[in-house]
């Protein structure tokens, strides 16, 4: 066992972190898409 396995910084579940990252990126790209669609419809 190496020293990093003994002294972990975060004991949270990795699935929660990866899920939050997925949701954040999905919402970001959906927002960009929505802004682009609104600009296309208005212009």
Automatic annotation (TrEMBL):
Top-level lineage group: Bacteria
Transmembrane parts of this sequence: 20-42
Keywords, ordered alphabetically: Membrane, Transmembrane, Transmembrane helix
Protein name: YqzM family protein
Organism annotation: Schinkia azotoformans LMG 9581
Record lineage: Bacteria, Bacillati, Bacillota, Bacilli, Bacillales
């Amino acid at each position: 066992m190496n020293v990093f396995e003994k002294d972990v910084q975060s004991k949270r579940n990795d699935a929660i972190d990866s899920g939050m990252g997925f949701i954040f990126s999905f919402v970001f790209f959906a927002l960009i898409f929505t802004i682009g669609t609104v600009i296309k419809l208005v212009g």
